[in-house]
Design brief:
two-stranded antiparallel sheet; 275 residues; globular
Amino acid sequence: MDRPPLEVADLVRAAGDAFIERSRKWITWKHVKVLLAIARCRTAMLGGHLDECTRCGHRAISYNSCRNRHCPKCQTGARERWLEKRRSELLPTQYVHVVFTLPRQLAPLTLQNKKVVYDLLFRTSAETLLEVARDPQHLGAEIGFFSVLHSWSQKLDLHPHVHCVVPAGGLSADRSHWIKPPYAFFLPVKVLSRVFRGKFVAALQHAFQNGSLSFSRRLATPDSAENLCCVAETTISKGLVVYAKPPFGGPEHVLRYLAVTPTCSHLQPSTDLVF
């Protein structure tokens, strides 16, 4: 495979300093750290090692990788392995693309409780899809899907959302036949939103009650779990919760988008959730 004439690292080295200077009002040290890692990746700044051919004795210097999870060059191998595995799992049927999103108002809580909140987002979105799909009023079938977490927007704002790639249909309860959805949009978005909101708020309340959530000085501790969930439910109801549409260009198009997008920052492309 020929090396592309320009890589992300080339762009960062050429325009990174100017971009950081223009973005002083909102950019954080975490963003700067990622840009510096990408700029230094596989250069003399990170050191290297000498490779020698055992047959001809030819020597070549290989510079070390930054190994940053945001670096597109370091994630290439993992991305291709993930894509190949997901392609092998695709069924000969149509697919839909469902996105579960948390609103920006929950960003302070999420930043201080990433592991807990992201786990809740994964779990409650999965439970929502399974529960609504099993309902005979909507599909009445057992479905399978995989989910990928994207935690940042293209503007580097915290924007936690889970992409789910779902076959448009499922198996009957006795596993004897395939059931197609009665709707062109697979499952009702309003129903998915309502169930998801209830499950996430209940899970957040439970996490508060068992002490799983932490609150720093910058984030006031709620008086009670009921108070926290009242605020959370009001906030979530105003935000973009569930979005669904058929994958543009087919499921492989969505797979490649999920694998190459730079917004997948807290879970590597090789990390997925399969039912």
